[in-house]
Design goal:
Two copies of one chain form a homodimer.
Chain A: E1 11-13, H1 23-32, E2 36-39, H2 45-58, E3 63-68, H3 77-86, H4 104-114, E4 118-122, H5 128-136, E5 140-145, H6 148-157, E6 161-165, E7 171-172, H7 186-194, E8 201-204, H8 210-219, E9 223-226, H9 240-247, E10 255-258, E11 266-269, H10 272-276, H11 286-300, H12 323-338
Parallel strand pairs in A: 1-9, 2-3, 3-4, 4-5, 5-6, 6-8, 8-9
Antiparallel strand pairs in A: 7-11, 10-11
Helix pairs in contact in A: 1-2, 1-12, 2-4, 4-5, 8-12
């Protein structure tokens, strides 16, 4: 089982489901001495297996795979239908809203066979048999938490480490309950969780500079998880309009939390779609499937105003550089600050 | 002019207007080697002068005074009247809503005469003549900012240092514009501000442990500002029901941002009043004056559900201990972590 202290450098790649995750990105982070991740979310089990195979052809270092925990009960169809009706003015096809578990069991079988060093969970706890199976396969199991209460539940459930995600983080809030999303800033979250659980913590949310890496290590985290910092690397699968929005480096390009794209709260650079659908319901993954074709069409025509521009609060500082270089520089800067 | 690096320990007391600020608290922080503050807000100029005299009788160390920058234009009376009507069911007298500038010029005259080492501003920039007068009096002028844009404006205006206040902070958001309050977590804010301005930064928001002090210093701040961490000290003027709410140390006692008490966004432990008046308008200081007698009555009868329970997000970790001991312990812990 991988201990966080075994990492050559204390930097973990955020999974970045929904496009940016690629084997090339994960491999670059692993080769730099950090822990690269593949995002299983939204992919088929077969695609995940193929991505793991590609990653393993690129590096023999430890890596991680992130799974979405099975979603809660289906949303009220009337709520989804109302939101669908409100999207009729959007340019592009709508998808069929459906409830599914992101093929959790099939992907679990893939990771149990492939045995990545770490399997992290987003959106909740793994079912107990799943946790036991991953343990048997030799995987460390990490759980994403956004509140001290979630941290206590994950520790009691048997997690090996926690990804403590502050409200600064880009993309989805990774906690257990979309109806009560954690709102804690990262530094507050780290203090509260460290006071209540003994597990190693990976700090996530708005970390884009070496100074911020140093800060979370000083706060007591065992590693920093970075996502937005890597979105502009050539290895990432970030779409062209998403890259362009990030490249503006505009401190006034504010991020905000929205359910407009997926039916689950997530942070992105505020754009026309996000503003227009501020009343989107909590209905995940139904709304994800509803808007997926619409977003694909907008991406294809380069329309940044109609796609999810996931980004953490410090996104204006994200650089365009090879992922390995970014990770090494963050670690070097943090080391220089901390003198260790 | 006081340089932050001259502080024996890099800890600044948050001003804590509205009750908790006392000369005894400021003196204890100063004597411990940090920078104590007196909050001028809500007091008369005469009260401020008396408090400064008392502080100076207790310590000859450098101290700071915090002023509210003059408020913007008066709120629409119809908006205030609607909110007043919605408060009729509350137990206790309502005050007369009025617009004022918190006696800015009178207090400015007091500090120009008393020459504290630092004068910090909340809610905006000081008028240029005020800034010049404070400079002439030998005071360092600090400005509270919540966004990189505010930081750039404060730097261009001539501030000597910035108090960078993250969204984790208890009490009022200290930025320039209540209609566009900064939402940045402290670590994201520090990174963004450090990339844009060269001024020394005092980091504020959710800092209750030595590890968090170490974190903001590692992130590049010159000092940490702590408020909630001191609210339970005997030197603070924190009301009994406010103390009791903090003493529960309940990680589930969540904080939230509200305009219910003052007409300006502020963070407190969520209680009945805050939930009941979630639609309170942006109308400061009119709403402050409107609810002040109501809150005084609730405080007198020990009703924590009807008063502002200002607290930062990490409040469950605030300890009951003498202020000097808290400040020294925070500094010692931070020093041990950073090895400096």
């Amino acid at each position: 089982v991988l201990a966080l202290s075994q990492l050559e450098i204390p930097i973990v790649q955020a999974p970045l489901a929904g496009g940016p995750s690629t084997p090339a990105l994960a491999a670059a982070v692993c080769e730099a001495g950090g822990l690269g991740f593949l995002a299983a979310g939204y992919r088929t089990a077969g695609e995940l297996a193929a991505q793991i195979a590609e990653l393993r052809s690129r590096t023999d270092r430890p890596y991680g795979v992130n799974l979405f925990a099975p979603a809660g009960p289906p949303a009220d169809p009337a709520v989804v239908e109302r939101y669908r009706a409100s999207l009729q003015g959007e340019a592009g096809p709508l998808g069929e809203p459906r409830h599914d578990d992101d093929a959790f069991e099939e992907k679990l079988a893939v990771v149990a066979a492939e045995r990545p060093a770490v399997v992290s969970l987003t959106f909740g706890l793994p079912p107990a048999p799943a946790l036991a199976g991953l343990r048997d396969a030799g995987c460390s199991v990490w759980v994403t938490v956004t509140t001290p209460a979630e941290a206590e539940r994950a520790a009691a459930h048997g997690a090996d480490a926690l990804v403590a995600q502050g409200v600064e983080a880009g993309g989805h809030r990774g906690g257990f309950d979309d109806s009560a999303p954690g709102e804690l800033g990262l530094l507050a979250l780290l203090q509260l969780v460290l006071a209540r659980v003994e597990l190693p913590l990976v700090a996530a949310g708005g970390i884009v500079t070496g100074a911020a890496v140093a800060a979370v290590l000083a706060a007591g985290a065992s590693a920093a998880q970075v996502g937005t910092a890597l979105l502009r690397s050539p290895e990432a699968g970030t779409s062209a309009p998403h890259r362009a929005a990030l490249a503006r480096g505009d401190a006034l390009a504010e991020t905000g939390l929205t359910r407009a794209f997926s039916g689950r709260l997530a942070r992105g650079i505020v754009n026309r779609f996000q503003r227009s659908h501020a009343d989107a319901p909590s209905a995940y993954p139904e709304v994800h499937h509803l808007t997926a074709p619409l977003r694909a069409a907008a991406r294809a025509r380069g329309d940044a105003e109609a796609i999810n521009l996931w980004a953490g609060q410090a996104h204006p500082l994200a650089r365009e550089a090879p992922a390995g270089e970014i990770v090494r520089q963050l670690a070097d800067e943090a080391r220089a600050i901390l003198g260790r």
